[in-house]
């Protein structure tokens, strides 16, 4: 009695197949089960199962033409959409109101940057239609980005975006169902943001206060370091958000408030979550020292205008970090003070709060995160923290210190 095969056959439109793998891991289609036609065992030329299934469907039609089951003209070319047109359709969808599947203006801007790179890549490789943007082609694009020294997080986001576009085009009927695919990418668990030390933050504030044209920057650095706010959130902070009696900062996402939308001043919080956090004494003092402006915003730029995210970063890099580099030298090939950013102050806040006893629940609320996974990326334990913790652990039942050596035989 013949041994029953372990795998189930795949019934195509015209033939039945077994999907099997060579020792090398490459899939091939075993069509010997079809007694009327000799379909053989043609290679599918891929180690990816989803791609192999897509090619198997194409092979099924090819064999049907070969054996005269269908005429060549009956084999329709898969419908598709031009690469540029596909991007246009997706961007148009993203520009809808967020209530009906749209995204923020900042996200649309990022998507346009991805679009330009992806279109350029497709043009150079002769890829003209989204029907040809398969899982393997998308991974090849990821390899192309990696060779261009793009960060892992950038590659992760761009490949997932392309996968989302393909699947959306399938849902909208612009691509055949077999074009859909899933990507299983390993998300980077680390953070590339440099986290300042307390000495560095203190020195930056002192340096700015010593220079009249940078006093405004000292207030911005102190505020960011003691609240963990994003620079965009600080720039949009209003006096009405500060409750000095309750000693609390309250941030509200305003994208659903028509009054704010009409003036174009609605605040959009990443994650769309309202949050509140207690005022640190340093922040309270800095805020109290700010002059009140008719527009209601708390923090101002050098000449009294609204804070500009890009301007804050430029001044931090060119006038503060560059001036203090000699005090905090960065070893060659390592990430250090020279690579500091405005966002690094958010990491600093999280790290210092954690070091001083703040729990996960408090950090989630203060930072506005949904889960502790992101909060972990913001925590950076300094070397002295690790040394102190290690000295406090009693491994061998002694009192620790130099006497613990007597416990070792």
TrEMBL record:
<keyword id="KW-0229">DNA integration</keyword>
<comment type="similarity">
    <text>Belongs to the 'phage' integrase family.</text>
</comment>
<dbReference type="InterPro" id="IPR010998">
    <property type="entry name" value="Integrase_recombinase_N"/>
</dbReference>
<keyword id="KW-0233">DNA recombination</keyword>
<dbReference type="GO" id="GO:0003677">
    <property type="term" value="F:DNA binding"/>
</dbReference>
<dbReference type="InterPro" id="IPR013762">
    <property type="entry name" value="Integrase-like_cat_sf"/>
</dbReference>
<keyword id="KW-0238">DNA-binding</keyword>
<dbReference type="Pfam" id="PF00589">
    <property type="entry name" value="Phage_integrase"/>
</dbReference>
<dbReference type="InterPro" id="IPR044068">
    <property type="entry name" value="CB"/>
</dbReference>
<dbReference type="InterPro" id="IPR011010">
    <property type="entry name" value="DNA_brk_join_enz"/>
</dbReference>
<dbReference type="GO" id="GO:0015074">
    <property type="term" value="P:DNA integration"/>
</dbReference>
<feature type="compositionally biased region" description="Basic and acidic residues">
    <location>
        <begin position="253"/>
        <end position="268"/>
    </location>
</feature>
<dbReference type="InterPro" id="IPR002104">
    <property type="entry name" value="Integrase_catalytic"/>
</dbReference>
<dbReference type="InterPro" id="IPR050090">
    <property type="entry name" value="Tyrosine_recombinase_XerCD"/>
</dbReference>
<feature type="region of interest" description="Disordered">
    <location>
        <begin position="253"/>
        <end position="272"/>
    </location>
</feature>
<protein>
    <submittedName>
        <fullName>Tyrosine recombinase XerC</fullName>
    </submittedName>
</protein>
<feature type="domain" description="Tyr recombinase">
    <location>
        <begin position="191"/>
        <end position="392"/>
    </location>
</feature>
<dbReference type="GO" id="GO:0006310">
    <property type="term" value="P:DNA recombination"/>
</dbReference>
<feature type="domain" description="Core-binding (CB)">
    <location>
        <begin position="85"/>
        <end position="170"/>
    </location>
</feature>
């Amino acid at each position: 009695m013949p041994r029953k095969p372990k795998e189930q056959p795949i019934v195509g439109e015209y033939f039945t197949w077994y999907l099997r793998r060579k020792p090398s891991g490459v899939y091939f289609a075993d069509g010997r089960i079809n007694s009327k036609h000799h379909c053989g065992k043609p290679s599918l030329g891929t180690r990816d199962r989803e791609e192999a299934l897509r090619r198997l469907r194409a092979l099924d039609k090819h064999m049907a033409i070969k054996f005269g089951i269908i005429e060549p003209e009956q084999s329709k070319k898969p419908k598709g959409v031009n690469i540029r047109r596909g991007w246009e359709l997706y961007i148009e969808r993203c520009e809808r109101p967020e209530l009906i599947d749209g995204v923020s203006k900042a996200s649309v801007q990022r998507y346009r940057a991805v679009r330009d790179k992806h279109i350029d890549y497709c043009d150079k490789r002769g890829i003209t239609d989204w029907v040809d943007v398969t899982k393997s082609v998308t991974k090849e694009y990821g390899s192309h980005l990696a060779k261009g020294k793009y960060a892992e997080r950038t590659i992760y986001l761009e490949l997932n975006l392309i996968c989302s576009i393909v699947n959306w085009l399938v849902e909208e009927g612009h691509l055949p169902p077999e074009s859909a695919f899933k990507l299983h990418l390993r998300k980077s668990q680390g953070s590339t943001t440099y986290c300042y030390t307390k000495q560095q933050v203190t020195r930056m504030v002192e340096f700015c206060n010593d220079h009249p044209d940078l006093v405004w920057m000292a207030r911005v650095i102190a505020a960011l370091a003691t609240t963990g706010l994003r620079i965009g959130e600080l720039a949009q902070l209003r006096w009405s958000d500060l409750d000095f009696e309750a000693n609390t900062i309250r941030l509200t996402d305003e994208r659903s408030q028509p009054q704010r939308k009409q003036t174009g001043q609605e605040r959009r919080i990443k994650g769309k979550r309202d949050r509140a956090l207690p005022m640190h004494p340093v922040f309270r003092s800095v805020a109290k020292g700010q002059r009140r402006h008719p527009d209601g915003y708390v923090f101002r730029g050098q000449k009294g205008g609204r804070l500009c995210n890009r301007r804050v970063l430029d001044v931090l890099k060119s006038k503060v970090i560059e001036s203090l580099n000699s005090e905090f030298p960065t070893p060659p090939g390592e990430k250090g003070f020279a690579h500091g950013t405005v966002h690094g102050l958010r990491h600093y806040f999280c790290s210092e709060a954690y070091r001083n006893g703040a729990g996960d629940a408090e950090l989630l609320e203060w930072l506005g995160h949904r889960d502790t996974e992101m909060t972990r990326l913001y925590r950076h334990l300094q070397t002295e923290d690790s040394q102190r913790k290690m000295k406090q652990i009693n491994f061998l039942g002694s009192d620790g210190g130099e006497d613990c050596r007597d416990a070792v035989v």
